[in-house]
Automatic annotation (TrEMBL):
InterPro entries: Put_GTT3. It comes from the Eukaryota. One of its GO terms (cellular component) is membrane. PANTHER family: GLUTATHIONE TRANSFERASE 3. Residues 52-74 are annotated as: Disordered. This is Uncharacterized protein.
Length: 96
């Protein structure tokens, strides 16, 4: 999964960004371009970290850079509610 900042950009902005950093062969789908940019910028962080145009990419928290999703909790089991039993009062012995 690509960086949140990259996901927020339009395809034309992603293409401009790819041209800015000198990336070649960026034709294809938007998601492919996002993934390619994410991988390239992560691998070359020492070169591009000081670039003000790319600062939003490097200021995002590490977990949004596609390092994997967190472990999800298991869904709790649903408790089945039992119907309340009505207590029948003792029969009143009486004549009518």
């Amino acid at each position: 999964m690509a960086n949140a900042w990259l996901r927020s950009l339009r395809k034309t902005e992603l293409i401009e960004l790819a041209e800015h950093i000198g990336l070649k062969n960026y034709d294809g789908l938007r998601k492919d371009l996002e993934a390619t940019l994410d991988e390239y910028l992560t691998e070359n962080s020492d070169r591009f970290a000081a670039d003000p145009k790319l600062s939003p990419f490097y200021t995002q928290p590490a977990r949004t850079r596609g390092l994997g999703s967190p472990i999800k909790r298991e869904a709790p089991e649903l408790k089945i509610a039992k119907r309340r039993q009505i207590k029948v009062p003792d029969e009143v012995v009486g004549s009518m």
